[in-house]
Amino acid sequence: MQKNGSAVRVPCLCKAHSLSRFFLPRPSVSNYLTRGLIERNTMVSSSGLTTQPLFSFGLISDVQYADIPDGRSFLGVPRYYRHSIIVLQRAIKEWNTHHNKHKFVINLGDIVDGFCPKDQSLSTVKKVVDEFEMFKGPVYHMIGNHCLYNLPRSKLLPLLNIQTLDGCAYYDFSPVPEYRFVILDSYDISAIGWPEDHPKALEAVKVLRDKNPNEDKNSPINLEGPERRFLMFNGGVGKEQMKWLDGVLQEATKLKQKVVVCCHLPLDPGAATEEALLWNFDEVMNLIHRYNCVKVCLAGHDHKGGYSIDSHGIHHRVLEAALECPPGTDAFGNVEVYDDRISLVGTDRMESTDMHFNPEV
């Protein structure tokens, strides 16, 4: 993976997807960044580096475990369904013995795969959750499309210990006074996971009908550019969640907290394929850009991973999937958090990324 978004990107595709297509290389994110912005962030960091992090945490995405033989994505990328839980087990062992004791772990979604036999969905989700609970500290989950292929929200959220009202899965937490983490529900407006007659499902169906003319709503054929994101295996952030996010960012600004936004679906085209983006990523980022507190956005879903810095200096890091690790390899991270940077120390197939920023909120 190349850090500046020039690598070919592969989105996480649902099993109903019937499209075969080719991806072209993406333009470098540096095309729309000024060198001065990056250098300024680096100089600010260099002037006051601290030797010890404020705290550290573990990070993993797209385990997508299933007790089935290995397979391939619709683009031919190998997937190691049984091995992925071994990657998680090795990650847990590493996190529990890390020299900087991790305060928590974040799972960026899709803990089981859509090909998991439906009569095994509940037991499979429980099996993976049990592995996460071997970590000696809090684990913060978010939901992905593959989670919702297996279980409805009513069964899934209690297993993931996501305690919110009305079946929604967005929340925030503050591990230290200086930082706040925001977990977005990227399938708030979605055609999967909700009952078919639920208002959020009906809104999603309308979005897909208006934005995607194809009979197969998982196909982006004839859609151009970012419009290719309007696929059934993606989703959006609803109005109530947007109001909540605005309130959280207001409060974080008052408290002079730096914010890390976590979302299963990527929020910046420079870090991911267009087919993998949140439906209303532009609306969410327009809101985020009204504040100076958000420093980093973390995402999963686009299995090859990606990295960009947007026009406001916010770092976007999409994580490489545990699912696509051949036996003997890993993809998880140890993250060290400082006042002026967040350093992702990747394991094996997960690339390390040092994200410097202006510490002022």
From TrEMBL:
Lineage of source species: Eukaryota, Viridiplantae, Streptophyta, Embryophyta, Tracheophyta
UniProt record similarity statement: Belongs to the ADPRibase-Mn family.
GO molecular function per UniProt: 2',3'-cyclic-nucleotide 2'-phosphodiesterase activity; ADP-ribose diphosphatase activity; CDP-glycerol diphosphatase activity; manganese ion binding
Secretion signal, residue range per the UniProt entry: none
Superkingdom of origin organism: Eukaryota
Catalytic activity: CDP-glycerol + H2O = sn-glycerol 3-phosphate + CMP + 2 H(+); ADP-D-ribose + H2O = D-ribose 5-phosphate + AMP + 2 H(+); CDP-choline + H2O = phosphocholine + CMP + 2 H(+)
Keywords attached to this entry: Hydrolase, Metal-binding, Zinc
EC numbers for this chain: 3.6.1.13, 3.6.1.16, 3.6.1.53
Protein name, UniProt field: Manganese-dependent ADP-ribose/CDP-alcohol diphosphatase
SUPFAM superfamilies: Metallo-dependent phosphatases
Provenance organism: Clitoria ternatea (Butterfly pea)
Subunit details: Monomer.
